Amino acid sequence: MRLDNFRYALLITVALGASDAFSAVGFTDIDASATAHAITGCATFGMAAYTTGAYTGALTSAVANTDATAYLSTTLPCSMTTNFGTAAAPVLLSVLNTGDLTLNANNFYKPVTGIDSSLDIGSLRFYAPGKVRIDTAVPVFNNGSYMEFLSDRMVDFVTTALDFAGDMVIAAGKTLYINVDTGKTATISGKIRGGGRVVKKGGGDLFLTNALNSYGGGETAEAGLLYLPAVVLAADNTSAIAIPDRIVKSFNVPNGASYKLSGAISGLGYFRKLGGGVADLLGNNIGFMGKLIVGDGTNRAGTILAGHINALGSNTVETDLVISANANATLKFAVSATTKRPLSLGDNLIVEVGSTTSGKTTTAAVATFDGIISETGGARSITKTGAGQFVLNRLNTFSGGLAVNRPTA
């Protein structure tokens, strides 16, 4: 028999059947009726372990205290389509078995603050593998409630463009698999914490946006793209930046700011520059083979300053340099550099090629593009400024024209 946080108002256990020795949960205080907390379409109520018949009466503390076996059980897979749990009558739901659970309703509540402050318990706890499907309505976790994964389990976003705002806790040594199918996107704006790890599956894109995420096991993307929360720079960055394949790491330099990134960038993932300020890439990024993205498609993206010959990666790299829509960006070369990256213009671009001075000698930089320059979303143009040279070695396809602003004395 399992006694699980018996001081709470109502504890529901979802179990597969009689073969599970941990399907019974004990209570000391139950003040809600069965009908008020029914899980439509998949719940049966019992007053003893493994009872399969329906029970519609009130679950009272007297019965629960007698043999500690009152529980709610269901056979998975099932779909939870009703709202249950309130601030006055909080609910803790434990899934003890393998199987799939679909969440398409709102309002899971953590036990109210003050009942037992020493316990940190998720409102929805998973003890065994299986799937949690988040369907057409995003479940809302209120009053500080969250999902807790005490085993490996997959969260599957069924419908595109969902934003899950609840928190998640992954136990140490466990893996939370998050699936987003090809052609879909999903966002988790809630905080992910614990000692476990995150593995992104499916060909769609997953955005983790909470800057307070603190899970200790790291992350891997097996398919699609996994966007990590943007790092908002408030000072120069001297640390190396490793970006694994299919991982997108974003760095935001606020308007009016200019910060140096002198640590080496490496890996096959995506480096994305956000914010209207200047990101000065001073590191030897010869090991960076991934895509370089300027902007998020909506906001101004400021300036990327190439302050090292390998600032844009090795001159053998042929993955894209993407200027996003509405970026209003400047690509500035402080030193000579050559890139084979194809340049995709989602907005007009300013290319500034400067010069360096040593003593009385001034040397103009040379920026050489050996990749094809193309455009998306309409005709795009390039405006070249600065005293240096801008060399284009391919038959380019952008149609908005190339303007050259001559420097003045």
Description:
Helix content is 2%, strand content 38%. The chain is an all-beta fold. Among the domains are: 1-99 and 109-118, no CATH class; 231-404. Strand 36 and strand 37 (361-364) form a beta hairpin. It starts with 10 loop residues before the first strand and ends in a 5-residue tail after the last strand. Residues 1-84 and 111-120 have low confidence and may be disordered.
What labels describe this entry?
409 residues, eleven-stranded parallel β-sheet, seven-stranded parallel β-sheet
Helix tally?
Answer: 1
Structure classification? mainly beta
Oligomer: single chain
Shape: elongated
Strand content: 35-45%
Counted beta strands: 42
